[in-house]
Amino acid sequence: MSSCDPFAPHRAADVSTRAADDCHTGSQTAPPKRVPGTAHAAGEHPLRRHGWAIVAALFALYEYALHRVAQQPGAQVAGLLMGAAPFVLLALSFSWRSGWRLPLLILLGLACAGLWLLRAPLSLHFGWTYYLQHMGANTALGLMFGRSLRRGQLPLCTQFAAIVRGPLSPALKRYTRVITLAWTLFFAVMATVSTALFALAPIAAWSTFANLCSPLLVALMFVVEAGCRRFALPGLAHAGVGEAIQGYRAAMAARAGLSR
């Protein structure tokens, strides 16, 4: 039995001493360091990690469907319902998270019922749902970027870069401020051209610009910005699309938390 072993106390003391030495010398395995841009990459679900690509594909499919419906004779009702769908989904999301959930959901249900009952006369003006959706989105984005350029505010692109990279150099701060201004002007031009085409051109021409050209112009803007960044900051380690989207999501979440 161990109680009869005269060396048992000495062995126990040696084990305790070694354990204490391990704790003091740090011989235990240290947690791995976080590599910028790869956090959550190992344990994150693939759907969450690549969700932005799925959303982009669904958005492109929706835009293409809107364009086809806008040019299809006799599809005005379908066009009206497809154009109203994003507004209904936004209202549903807002109502569900509101403290007035039940009254707002009832009002939303009544509005949807009215839209369905009046679909025939409203379908004669279904282009307005497309225009309000496109112009409203570009105007809102332009205001969001532009307001961050006010004195005492942190430019939006600077916020994105700080989330992805951490502390920024003065040169990178100046660059991200200029890029914030560039995106502000881009969205302002998009809203202006959308309004001009909707007022002066046939709906098919406006739809080509809004539903087909707009996503391509946004993608081109990203490509041009990446080229400008490599020219203006040649020694910078450039972030990928996934990291940029991660920074955008984190900044938007922070802004939403501050607005509550």
Q: Point out poorly predicted stretches.
A: 1-13, 15-42
Query: What structural category characterises the helix and strand content?
Result: mainly alpha
Largest sheet: none
Quaternary assembly: single chain
- How far from one another are the termini? 67 Å
The number of helices is 11
The 3D shape can be described as globular
Percent helix, as a range, is over 70%
In terms of DSSP E residues, the strand content is under 5%
Query: How many strand segments?
Result: 0
Layout of helices and strands, plus pairs?
Elements: H1 8-25, H2 46-49, H3 51-70, H4 76-97, H5 101-117, H6 119-123, H7 127-147, H8 156-165, H9 170-200, H10 203-232, H11 241-259
Helix pairs in contact: 3-10, 4-5, 4-7, 7-9, 7-10, 8-9, 8-11, 9-10
Notes on the structure:
The protein has 260 residues and is an all-alpha fold. It has 11 helices and no strands. 76% of the residues lie in helices and 0% in strands. Helix 4 runs antiparallel to helix 5 (101-117). The longest helix has 31 residues, at 170-200. The protein starts with 7 loop residues before the first helix and ends with a helix.
Quick structural overview:
This protein is mostly helical. It has 11 helices and no strands.
What would the keywords be for this entry?
globular, 76% helix, 260 residues, mainly alpha
